[in-house]
């Protein structure tokens, strides 16, 4: 039997993509932050932060939401079989996601604040290119990427200020506390 898929079949196809892709993107993002230690390290707490630094718990709220939105955007593109430029859009998404996942280990794990700033600029360019390609395939997918781009701009400003306020961040060693009896 050959025929055109019904709207219900198409909806279920998208849901299958979303049920796989969204949790995968959220899981990868969470693992990256957990493995790098994120803001729980003594090194990070010792850094001078800009006055507009949000409280740490906000990152734990914002990033999962952004990862869900990114996963839904990718699911839309994966669902758009036969669309021109789909393969390149998916490849660019994967590239920007991998770059995103490597930022936390670079910044929090290796304490490379200046390198992380440059890396973040590269992530932004990759994400902007991804968003552009997504817009050509499914405009709604590009709109789902827009908050991520906005957050990356904020992250760039935050990373820049941390780098500016802590020129010795790469070599900062937090002393061990000891007590003498």
Features:
mainly alpha, 75% helix
Uncertain runs are: none
Order of helices and strands: HHHHHH
What is the overall pLDDT average? 88
Principal-axis shape:
elongated
Largest sheet report: none
Number of domains: 1
End-to-end separation in angstroms reads 84 Å
Rg calculated over all Cα atoms: 20 Å
Instruction: Give me the count of strands.
Output: 0
Tally of DSSP helical segments: 6
The fraction of residues assigned to DSSP E strands is: under 5%
Share of helical residues: over 70%
SS-based structural class?
mainly alpha
Describe the structure.
This protein has six helices and no strands. With 181 residues, the protein is an all-alpha fold. The radius of gyration is 20 Å and the shape is elongated. The longest helix has 30 residues, at 7-36. It has helices at residues 7-36, 42-46, 56-79, 86-109, 113-137, 139-165.
In short:
The chain has 181 residues and is mainly alpha-helical. The chain contains six helices and no strands.
Helices, strands, pairings?
Layout: H1 7-36, H2 42-46, H3 56-79, H4 86-109, H5 113-137, H6 139-165
Helix pairs in contact: 1-3, 1-4, 3-6, 4-5, 5-6
